Amino acid sequence: MAAGSGKIDPMHQFEVQTIWDGFSIGGHQIAFTNSAAWMCVTVLALWGFMLMGMKRQVVPSRGQMLVENFVGFIDSMLAQNVGKDGKKYVPYVFSLFMFILFANILGLLPLGVVGIHPFTFTSHFTITGILAIMSFSIVLIVGFWKHGLHFFSLFVPHGTPLWLIWLIPVIEFVSFMVRPFSLGLRLFVAMTAGHVLLKVLAGFVINSSNAGIVYGLGIGIPSFVLMIGISALELLVAGIQAYVFALLTSLYINDAEHLH
Predict the structure, then answer these.
(1) How far apart are CA 38 and CA 204, in angstroms?
(2) How many domains, in total, are found in the chain?
């Protein structure tokens, strides 16, 4: 909120703030930020979640069943989209899916009431872009390792007319190279838009309450109710975006494995 103005800046929540200055390498400052801190929190939360699935009890607990269901979900998705060759990618796609899911959900927790301000690092394209580049790199490595230069045949779909052989590969290549950008951008935009909307509604609630009981009842309460609904929708979006990221990654891996 801007000092003395009553205005709420919906973009302030995305500001990367330095927690520890760290050290300098080659004139570049290496600092520990709120973004890095919440990545660590996400990893710790995910580690704690996975511990529930490592007990290997004959009669599984609810936590163990939950972990096993998530693993089975990713395994099934890769089996459907990649086939039997998808089994070896389960650890990576599962880790990617769960990391994004936990990051998205943690960023939505109402911890502000206890003075803790969650930071949704998946609302930064630098983070989602790196995750997309990781997936894209695996596709390239697998494609060239398994098929060599024949991997370039991916850009010439079966049944391409000879008179279009000069155009279709160019279009396919551009489409292929745009994949990491679109993959990272989709997650970044979805998470940013939802958080901006929630912040705007929070501004309506606060400012209308300060303006008097009439504005509070007429604007503040409906905005607060809408915030609750949007928060529930954002939880759904958090899961969907993690799923879409994992799904597209599996489809891209399928292209590298089978050149479809």
Answers:
(1) 28
(2) 1
Alpha-carbon span 258 to 43, nearest angstrom: 33
More confident of the two residues 157 and 56: 157
- Global confidence as pTM: 0.90
Where does the chain have alpha helices with state H?
Answer: 34-51, 62-81, 90-106, 125-147, 168-211, 213-215, 221-258
Within-domain flag for 5: no
Q: Which amino acid is at 191?
A: M
Strand-pairing partners, residue 30, are 23
| 83: its two tokens | 């086939």
In terms of residue numbers, what domain contains 80?
12-258
Least confident of 50-64, 81-95, 217-231, 241-255: 50-64
The model's pLDDT over 91-111, given as tens digits with 9 standing for 90+, comes to 999 999 999 999 999 999 888
- Residue 4: inside a domain: no
CA-CA distance, 70 to 82, in Å (whole number)?
18
Mean pLDDT of the chain: 88
Does residue 3 form part of some domain?
A: no
Distance, CA of 58 to CA of 109 (rounded, Å)? 34
Is residue 54 within 8 Å of residue 66, measured between CB atoms? no
Residue 144 falls inside a structural domain:
yes
Please report, as a single letter, which amino acid is at residue 188: F
Q: Whole-angstrom Cα distance, residue 93 to residue 77?
A: 10
The pLDDT value recorded for residue 2 is 46
